[in-house]
Write a structure and sequence with these properties.
- The complex is a heterodimer of chains A (about 60) and B (about 400).
- By secondary structure, chain A is an alpha+beta fold.
- Helix content of chain A is about 20%, strand content about 15%.
- In chain A, strands 1-2-3 form a 3-stranded antiparallel β-sheet, covered by helices on one side.
- In chain A, about 25% of the residues are buried.
- The two termini of chain B are about 40 Å apart.
- In chain B, strand 1 and strand 2 form a beta hairpin.
- With about 400 residues, chain B is mainly beta.
- In chain B, strands 17, 18, 19, 20, 21, 22, 23 and 24 form an 8-stranded antiparallel β-sheet that branches. A 7-stranded antiparallel β-sheet of chain B has the order 3-4-7-12-9-10-14.
- Chain B folds into 3 domains: about 35 residues, no CATH class; about 220 residues, Galactose-binding domain-like (Jelly Rolls); about 110 residues, no CATH class.
- Chain B has 3 helices and 24 strands.
- Classes of the chains: A alpha+beta (about 60), B mainly beta (about 400).
- At the A-B interface, strand 3 and helix 1 of A face strand 20 and strand 22 of B.
Chain lengths: ~60, ~400
C-alpha cells in the first residue's frame, strides 16, 4: 500500500486535509472512517506518505 | 391475508403516535401481505424491525453483480463483506446471484464459490461472509448490561456440501463472541434457519455512535485460532467456529455457499420480514456508500449520465485557472467518506475529464463532510470556457 500527500491547492482554493491512497481515493482525517484508521495503522508501523506524485500520475 | 382486528395497537402521547415509523412499517406489511413467501408467520404478531442492511441482497452499488476477490475481506453487495484468508492456496470469489440461484420467490442472494480448494486450513485461516452494524443500530439491545435482550437471526442458506456450519455474533472490538451451529441437511437445497441467541450481559459493548457495534458472520470454514469447544454461550474471544468443524468449503474446488434473505431482530422469535421498496433500501445503503453513477451502472463506466459537471463559458473575460464543485449526498453518511473521482470519459480513478481540452486532469477533494463534499480541478489549459466532468464514489462503509 502507498499513500500520497495532497497537492498544493489551486489559487484561491482551500487546502485539502486528506491523504490520497494509491488507487486515487481521497481519505479524510475522520477517526470513524475505516480507510483513515487503516492509514493510521500503516503510519504506526513506521511508514510515511510520499509527496504528491504529480498531476499526470496514473492511479491504479 | 385478513387484517387483524382488535384494539388500536399504537401508543398515543399527547395525541401523537409514539412510533410513526412502526406504524408505517405495519401499514406497508398489511399492504404487501407479507410477501406471500415461506417466511415464518407468527399469527397476528407485528414484524420487528430488521437490523440488517440490504437483507434481500438486491443492492450492489460497488460491483453491480461483478465478482469480487474475497482475499482482503472485500466488500461485496451493499452491507456484506466476504473474507478469505487462505495460506494454503485457497482461492474464492463472491458475487450477487440472480433469481435462478436464489430461494424460490426471491430475486437475489449472495454467493461464494471456491475457485481453487485449499490444500489445508492452517490455524489462522478462515472464510466468512459477514455484515457489520453501526453501534447506534444496537442501542435497543442493552448488550453489556443486565437488561441485554435476546436476538433472533433468520436466513436462507444453500450449500453444495451438506453438514453443520456456524454463525458467529460478536462485538465491534472482537472481544465477545457467540458461536452457534446450524445444519444444512441436504446439499444444494435452500433451507430457512431461525436462530435465537441470548443477550450478552457481560463484556464491553458500544451501543451508540457511528462505529461498529455488532457483527454477524456466516463462517464457511476456519482454522483452530478462531475455533472453540464451547458453543451457544457468550465468550471473551474472537471466534468463528467450533472445534472439529468441517472446512470442506475451503478445501473443495467448486464448492459453493449462498446466503439468501436474512433478518436480525430483537426478541427470541422470528417475525415476518418486510421488504422495503428499492428506493427505501437504497437510501439506507447510501448512508455507507453512494455513487454518482445510476443504479445498475458499474463504477468507472464511461458515461455522462449522472456525472458531476462544472461548466462556465464567457465570450470575453478571465481565464479559468481552477474550479470547485459541490457533491451533495442524497443521504448523510455514517462518517466523512473516502471519495474517489473518476474521469467520465476514460473511467480513470483520481481524474476529471476536461471536455474543452479533451484531456483527463487531476482532481482533488476538499471539505469532506457527511452531507456534502467538494471536488476541485484545474483545466489542462487556460480558457474562457471551462467544462470539467467527473463521476464520484463516496465510501463510509464499516
Amino acid at each position: 500500500m502507498q499513500y500520497y500527500l495532497p497537492p498544493p491547492p489551486a489559487e484561491g482554493m482551500p487546502a485539502s486535509d486528506c491523504i490520497v491512497r494509491e488507487d486515487g481515493a481521497w481519505i479524510p482525517p475522520d477517526p470513524a472512517n475505516r480507510d483513515w484508521a487503516e492509514y493510521q495503522a500503516w503510519v504506526a508501523e513506521g511508514n510515511e506518505a510520499q509527496p504528491w506524485p504529480g498531476n499526470d500520475h496514473v492511479f491504479a | 391475508m385478513p387484517l387483524p382486528i382488535g384494539p388500536f395497537p399504537y401508543q398515543l402521547i399527547n395525541g401523537t403516535l409514539a412510533d410513526a415509523n412502526q406504524v408505517m412499517a405495519d401499514f406497508n406489511w398489511l399492504l404487501n401481505g407479507v410477501n406471500s413467501l415461506p417466511w415464518p408467520l407468527p399469527g397476528s404478531q407485528i414484524a420487528n424491525y430488521n437490523k440488517l442492511l440490504n437483507p434481500f441482497m438486491e443492492i450492489d452499488q460497488a460491483n453491480e453483480g461483478a465478482a469480487t476477490n474475497p482475499a482482503t475481506n472485500s466488500f461485496s453487495i451493499d452491507g456484506y463483506r466476504v473474507g478469505l484468508n487462505s495460506t494454503a492456496g485457497g482461492v474464492g470469489a463472491a458475487q450477487r446471484q440472480a433469481a435462478a440461484a436464489s430461494p424460490l420467490g426471491y430475486q437475489n442472494s449472495l454467493g461464494y464459490t471456491t475457485a481453487t480448494g485449499a490444500s489445508s486450513v492452517p490455524a489462522g485461516d478462515y472464510a466468512q461472509i459477514f455484515t457489520r452494524l453501526e453501534a447506534d443500530d444496537i442501542n435497543d439491545t442493552g448488550f453489556g448490561t443486565s437488561n441485554a435482550q435476546a436476538l433472533t437471526l433468520s436466513f436462507y442458506a444453500y450449500c453444495t456440501i451438506a453438514g453443520t456450519y456456524y454463525v458467529s455474533f460478536s462485538n465491534g472490538a472482537g472481544t465477545r463472541s457467540y458461536i452457534t451451529p446450524y445444519t444444512i441437511s441436504t446439499a444444494s437445497t435452500w433451507q430457512l434457519f431461525s436462530i435465537a441467541i441470548p443477550g450478552d450481559t457481560a463484556g464491553t459493548w458500544t451501543l451508540s455512535g457511528n462505529t461498529t457495534g455488532f457483527q454477524v458472520s456466516w463462517t464457511l470454514g476456519t482454522g483452530t485460532t478462531y475455533q472453540t469447544v464451547t458453543t451457544n454461550t457468550w465468550q471473551s474471544a474472537n471466534l468463528l467456529g467450533a472445534t472439529g468443524m468441517s472446512n470442506a468449503i475451503l478445501t473443495t474446488t467448486n464448492a459453493g455457499f449462498r446466503l439468501g434473505p436474512c433478518k436480525l431482530e430483537v426478541g427470541s422469535a422470528a417475525t415476518p420480514m418486510l421488504r422495503q421498496s428499492f428506493q427505501q433500501e437504497l437510501a439506507r445503503c447510501q448512508r455507507y456508500y453512494e455513487k454518482s453513477y445510476d443504479a445498475g451502472t458499474a463504477v468507472g463506466t464511461s458515461t455522462v449520465t449522472g456525472q458531476s459537471q462544472f461548466f462556465a463559458g464567457l465570450s470575453t473575460g478571465p481565464t479559468w485557472a481552477g474550479i470547485s464543485r459541490d457533491i451533495p449526498f442524497k443521504t448523510n453518511k455514517r462518517a466523512a467518506p473516502t471519495i474517489t473521482l473518476y474521469s467520465r470519459n476514460t473511467g480513470a480513478p483520481g481524474k476529471v475529464f476536461d471536455l474543452i481540452n479533451a484531456a483527463d486532469v487531476a482532481g482533488s477533494i476538499i471539505q469532506q463532510g457527511t452531507s456534502t463534499s467538494s471536488w476541485t480541478a484545474n483545466p489542462a489549459a487556460g480558457s474562457s470556457t471551462v467544462n470539467l466532468n467527473a463521476h464520484w464514489v463516496a465510501d463510509a462503509r464499516l
